[in-house]
């Protein structure tokens, strides 16, 4: 496969991930109309971070959110002026909190981001491995400025 073909495949994967991010955030009843979705970091088929701008603020407060999708659980986060690298770090923290709550047996009492996966030891351990890979392989690429 030549470089142009690789670029076309990457663009197609990231385009599909943008559609996944739109569908994910739009699935929430509180989601306002979307003005724009901007890819801020992505590796096709693995992880993508989008900045979603809304037509109106959510609850009068946030008019933008980060949305993460990929071969990991999807999640949204408040922007708080973050750049892509710190936003991915925040995502990793959220996923580690969920996994820790599952592994300790305290998920029912924990105040953690809801992950769309069965709360099993295997899923928690798998997620921790994926998060470790994100932290080592992708967060540095997204930049920590």
Would you give an account of this structure?
The protein is an alpha+beta fold. It is built from three helices and four strands. It has helices spanning 3-26, 84-104, 121-142, and strands at 34-43, 47-58, 62-70, 75-78. A hairpin with a 3-residue loop joins strand 2 and strand 3 (62-70). Helix 2 packs antiparallel against helix 3. The longest helix is centred in the N-terminal third of the chain and has 24 residues, at 3-26. The chain is globular. The mean pLDDT is 92.
Describe the protein's topology.
Blueprint: H1 3-26, E1 34-43, E2 47-58, E3 62-70, E4 75-78, H2 84-104, H3 121-142
Antiparallel strand pairs: 1-2, 2-3, 3-4
Helix pairs in contact: 2-3
Summed up, what is this model?
With 145 residues, the protein is α+β, with helices and mostly antiparallel strands. It is built from three helices and four strands.
Beta-strand share of residues = 15-25%
What structural class do helix, strand and pairing data support? Answer: alpha+beta
**Overall strand count:** 4
Shape: globular
Largest sheet, strands/sense/barrel: 4 strands, antiparallel
Specify the helix fraction band.
40-55%
Enumerate the spans where pLDDT stays under 50 for 5 or more consecutive residues.
none
